[in-house]
């Protein structure tokens, strides 16, 4: 509904933890913002070697409504939430995938996107493989399945990931071990925690908080973490030392503010972006407001730095359903109003600074500006806590085509005119890196810069 | 899920407006926070005299999912959202009620609670009436039905409301007129707006914003507003001048912050409560946080007044479903964690002031405090932006019995100990009245004072 | 789907029987053919005086799917299955109705149709009554409710049924007694059985067989049977001696063949109709077939009498759903084929006698004849085991308007031509009475004769 | 619910027929008795080369309720109904299966059971294949997928079916051709019809009747029928001449009486079995009745031969749902009574011959006998229109284990005593072959004889 980039997936994995499947479900729930169209859990009962699967379309809560977790036996599990992109929203595409392969049973869940999946798939089909999903993740499963009987699991995985190119954080469950993997660029996050005698992994640390696990460390860029039958954790770097480029947009928008991503608190980084934005684009005004909820921390940072009071100028409706029946005589700005209402008393006759984290197509922003003016705002100054998003992502984020990104073919002044704001300021690339306390070029910033660490297909 | 008082109903009414039913549905959606367990719309096609009804259990969006509004014909409609209390959550109790009576067809929707419903019902049954619901609202319908054929609708209504006692904001739709009513105490709100050539009424003005109607005025305390077939609005005061006592808790918690209630912006009043609270109960601290979302405006007011920075110390999960499957080895403070997570970076090693609007049983607050301490808060100072809630409500709010209200049988120090906070401060009664810019005693404050404007049954 | 008259309701009642509600449900299931669009059970726990209700739209099995019968407490219950006619298929119209009236709680279920319901309803509304359903049965409830507090239940009922005119078999449950009633004409059946120490009543005796109750006797025409708190059964005849006219069509089509109706086995009567039909309308042929399933007993009787072999020339599909998606290039006789297929080997090159129980509009019969000819039948002779249906029913059977009844405006030869059969023979009125072993005029045969025992409204 | 063997599948295929998918659905509906737990249709739009799939759990009617057939584009389609046996009732096992393989897209549906599926599957997995279902049919798909790019489709199929052993009637849809296959034993039926310019195939000819297709011939035993892009039909016999053994039980129970199976009318064969049974096991009696519906034709044959009248002594309830809530004080013979009721008037004081087609475990038969005795039958003589079922089937029929078949470890007298009948007679093996007009040994009769044409795994 909002005009935003969309994270495509969230992962969970547990090893040697009681009620693993139930905790996987809760960990997925905490990461629901990373994918709302499908969810699943595969558990492993190590004594019997039995894997159990439950997957479905919809929110975690819908998929597991009234579910009896005693059906997902075992002290090991992996889980996945999914936002559908290519391939349509079909049940067969919901992860984790599970299959019997030459070397035993295996379950896999994937956050990211492979850039060479189509080519690999074509080869595999030519050699007699049958694909049952339209997901690039199934390619990885087939690559693992090509291995021979006696090969160590670790080797199967090394061989498979040497074939694939692109973004992948993976959790892979065998009947005697669990693997946690980040690709050599480390595009997507993956963190490890301790829970009792066992281990937990998740895309975001907010999952650990809910289930009471203690954060240990991130899976490192290019690392393959193996947890074996005895619970011993070993670390492998099959690609050796690589040039990392984790996604900077996790800080800007995707991650929950209470998560620690790449070792740092997201909320803190967003406030810093807001403060920096106030330094780069100051303006005289009466009030700072946010586009809730993602714009709130940056707006608070802007207000703090600028000494202009922060107010709740836009109120979010908490009962948003999936579809609304609009009257034929359309209500002005209906799509925005159904989610947000202006709080007239904070706006009427005021010079308003409104802070948001990004502008994708610009359509929603334009309606919001109109709504603020209708509520009596005398001036509207839009501030964006990131650089202009000029290029699409090929590493696991759902973005429109380049031509639809307003900043891909308009300069700031043109965007300002289109949005009908009195002024418009984006945080600079340098400002963004400063806000996340990193040197320029140490993240993937392709959506702002067009510099793609791996060439898309 | 939260330990709060609950508003029981929200109303909508439209007269001489195209697509009235569709707008009623949207107005109910905007007021969803006033009742989440049932919703309905009755429309009137004045040309044919036909009334159409659609009602169901669940959220507005669920009740009207894929609904074809062309089935709800006409330029007049009333609607209702409901939170179930007595009588169980049955479809038959979902309003608006519609019936054929001696003087024509009539539909009715009610926000409030009658204190003499049982006695009236007993009499009506003794005289041969049959009740089909367990709702007190049906009594009003029967009282109207007792009237004779030739009686003017206005008289039917005057006669009916002179029998009933308690809290009632009513919208009543006849085939030739619409009535908007507030009881002589004016317990519950009801406002009027203009839309094109017609009129709209709603419990809260946020409904007007969504459908683009222009706020006109409140229905006055004890007023019967009649809108006749020609769209002419006339005003009646069948009880003459009365001593008003509208519900002050609408300002504290029930209403949406972007609504104007009793003529004033709710958000502004809540910030004022926070500022006053800071004056009455100052404490040295590093950070002010809110219990989201209802505590946010007061927390911002407290921060503003105290000059202590406001931070997002508790993060709300936006995907809360209705039930969760908890593991058997229960997670500590599960019920709170599923909705809120502590944001450790804002809390660790800090003296924290946490602002909430009310404490009912105290159970949730206690868990929240524990969660803050677990996140490393050095001190926790709880501030409540209203006086202690010591007494139940009998005027349309769902409250626990007196014995379950923690403040009914514990003094402040006892509550402080139970909640395990370093200090606890409630806004005073005087402070609350000052915050809403009114003289003491001009509102119903029975839940704080035990002073009931009308004796409960 | 079939072109038939439709029975509108089936009743169950139990008094002083363990698990009464569960048995009521099974008794309704056995009588499912009497109404497929709604079902309900009201139970009474006599110790607490509590009535419990469960009703829903659909088949008995759907309404009670996964239902927990421990919610329907008590050793007394009444139940109802319903075929919707007037008033639309709404949940509020599903019986039994239950209400609190001046003299206590009462539940009622009704098989039949009142001819003066509209007039009575108008009066009741003028006096202040509120109707919640569009069912004529609610009128009876209101008439009972008019009675005063001290009146004996028996008097309440006598007073009510003296006001109503038309067809009514009723089961009425008070907190201390159960009433079983047939109107003074006895239009619709109602039978009594013994089960353990208690009593059971049902529209058809097949319900007794399923639950293991022993048939005792029919409720007599014009009888009010009262079973009091001590389980004592008394009999009342408030109308004195009346001229009876039970529905003869129960024998022809409505009742299950294994039921005893008005004291006689339905299957036996239907075979007798077939034998008589063979005497009245003999024809040289190779084979006798039936339109399954209702035509089977008469076809067997015809075959027996005529010595022509009976074969399964039409095979019924047992998995008929409610709707079918027909291709755009319509299949010939689709509507019939979906239910019945011709069995070519019994038909090809044969002279075929096909026996059915009735022709209503004639549309289905015509398609069936075509199907038989397509399967190679050399001659098709249609025999109907009842007289031509010329007039609609006003006593609880769903029939089309007179103008739509093919026999209302066509003579036999015209019908024969329309149906394209080689010969057509209907059982005579005298033959029908002989088959049911009764004197002419002792049943209601209005649908064949137009002689209405009570003038319709 | 009944104690019967169960057919596992039904097939449909259409080539060059308008609205192919809609007709496939209707053809499956006509064959619903061959599988009630899942259904699916895959269509092919030859112009675009696009395959479309719709599958689901439940009856055909449920799976396609409100389905929009315009989504299943094209003039070619295959369909499948399924009765679940091994592997559980999961959506992924519902056929037709569809996949992209090295040589293009392919869809497949299978009636039968492979005896070497597990061994083949193991090899395929060892070579890197991934299985997504627990169905033996997926093995065939993988064998086809092993073929190389340039191989003709016909060769792919020959290579695949030379690997598999067991029972298989197959319909296989490529983007340019349709294949219809029966295994070298011809265990399961498959017939071809003409519809307009195109072809239709179905497991049973009753499917042709519904959609108006004209029966052409059976697919012969061991034949591979290929219909190419130009609609030309060619015939191949990759196994040369083989010893056929089609399933004789299709005549006894599985097929619909109105179908032509292996060139003969099923109803006629069943009547012949009844006549032969009367010759082999005559007994003096008053009445012949059937266990409906499958026992009816044989009972009619028995009556015809014995000159004892055939009556409807057991009446079937037509509204059987899937589950029933039984009272705790169980009703005697509940499980039988819910489906069948005795018709006392035909039974009381009579010597009764009851005809059924088979006895599997004997539990239901025993209850039926008791029900007949309770209804007053003086003597009960049970006649079975087939030999004793002593051995399980491994060729696509769901049968209990050998130990559960009552005739596997009891002689006739022991069974007679267990069932408590006055006499018991089974049709002899010779009598059965005579009834189907075939020489002994020309069918698979393993369930009667233990002579398995192919050794089970």
The helicity of chain A comes to: 25-40%
Count of alpha/pi helices of chain A: 14
The chain-level mean pLDDT of chain A equals: 94
The strand count of chain A comes to 23
Shape of chain A: elongated
Give the termini distance of chain A in whole angstroms. Answer: 29 Å
Largest interface: A-B, 62 and 62 residues
Largest sheet features of chain A: 7 strands, antiparallel
Strand residues, percent of chain A: 25-35%
| Multimer state | homotetramer
Ranges of chain A where pLDDT stays below 50 over 5 or more residues in a row are none
What would you note in describing this structure?
The structure is a homotetramer of 457-residue chains. With 457 residues, chain A is an alpha+beta fold. Helices cover 26% and strands 26% of the residues of chain A. Chain A contains 14 helices and 23 strands. In chain A, the strands form 6 sheets. Chain A has a 7-stranded antiparallel sheet. In chain A, strand 6 and strand 7 form a beta hairpin. In chain A, helix 3 crosses helix 4, helix 8 crosses helix 9 and helix 8 runs antiparallel to helix 13. Chains A and B meet through helix 1, helix 2, helix 6 and helix 9 of A and helix 1, helix 2, helix 6 and helix 9 of B.
Key traits:
homotetramer; 457 residues; 23 strands; 26% helix; 26% strand; elongated
């Amino acid at each position: 509904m909002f005009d935003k980039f969309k994270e495509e997936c969230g992962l969970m994995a547990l090893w040697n933890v009681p009620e693993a499947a139930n905790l996987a479900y809760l960990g997925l729930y905490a990461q629901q913002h990373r994918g709302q169209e499908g969810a699943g859990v595969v558990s492993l009962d190590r004594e019997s070697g039995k894997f159990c699967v439950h997957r479905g379309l919809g929110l975690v809560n819908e998929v597991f409504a009234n579910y009896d977790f005693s059906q997902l036996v075992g002290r090991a599990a992996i889980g996945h939430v999914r936002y559908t992109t290519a391939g349509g929203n079909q049940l067969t595409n919901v992860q984790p995938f599970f299959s019997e392969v030459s070397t035993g049973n295996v379950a896999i869940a994937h956050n990211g996107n492979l850039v060479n999946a189509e080519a690999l798939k074509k080869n595999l089909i030519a050699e007699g493989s049958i694909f049952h999903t339209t997901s690039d993740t199934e390619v990885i499963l087939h690559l693992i399945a090509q291995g021979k009987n006696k090969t160590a699991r670790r080797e199967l995985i090394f061989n498979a990931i040497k074939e694939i190119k692109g973004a992948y954080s993976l959790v892979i469950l065998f009947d005697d071990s669990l693997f946690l993997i980040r690709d050599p660029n480390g595009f997507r996050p993956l963190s490890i925690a301790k829970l009792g005698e066992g281990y937990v992994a998740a895309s975001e640390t907010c999952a650990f908080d809910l289930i009471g696990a203690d954060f240990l460390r991130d899976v490192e860029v290019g690392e393959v973490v193996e947890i074996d039958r005895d619970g011993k954790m070993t670390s492998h770097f099959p690609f050796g030392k690589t040039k990392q480029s984790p996604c900077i947009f996790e800080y800007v928008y995707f991650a929950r503010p209470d998560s620690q991503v790449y070792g740092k608190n997201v909320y803190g980084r967003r406030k810093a972006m807001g403060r920096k934005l106030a330094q780069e684009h100051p303006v005289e005004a009466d009030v700072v407001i946010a586009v809730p909820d993602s714009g709130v921390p940056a707006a608070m940072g802007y207000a703090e730095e600028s000494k202009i009071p922060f107010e709740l100028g836009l109120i979010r409706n908490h009962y948003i359903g999936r579809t609304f029946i609009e009257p034929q005589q359309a209500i002005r700005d209906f799509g925005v109003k159904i989610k947000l209402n202006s709080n007239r008393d904070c706006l009427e006759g005021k010079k308003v600074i409104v802070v948001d984290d990004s502008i994708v197509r610009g359509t929603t922003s334009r309606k919001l500006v109109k709504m603020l003016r209708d509520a009596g705002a005398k001036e509207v100054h839009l501030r964006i806590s990131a650089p202009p998003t000029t290029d699409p992502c090929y590493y696991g984020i759902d973005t429109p085509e380049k031509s639809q990104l307003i900043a891909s073919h308009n300069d700031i002044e043109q965007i300002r005119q289109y949005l009908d704001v009195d002024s418009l300021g984006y945080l600079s690339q340098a400002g963004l890196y400063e806000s996340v306390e990193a040197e320029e070029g140490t993240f993937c910033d392709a959506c702002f810069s067009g510099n793609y660490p791996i060439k898309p297909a």
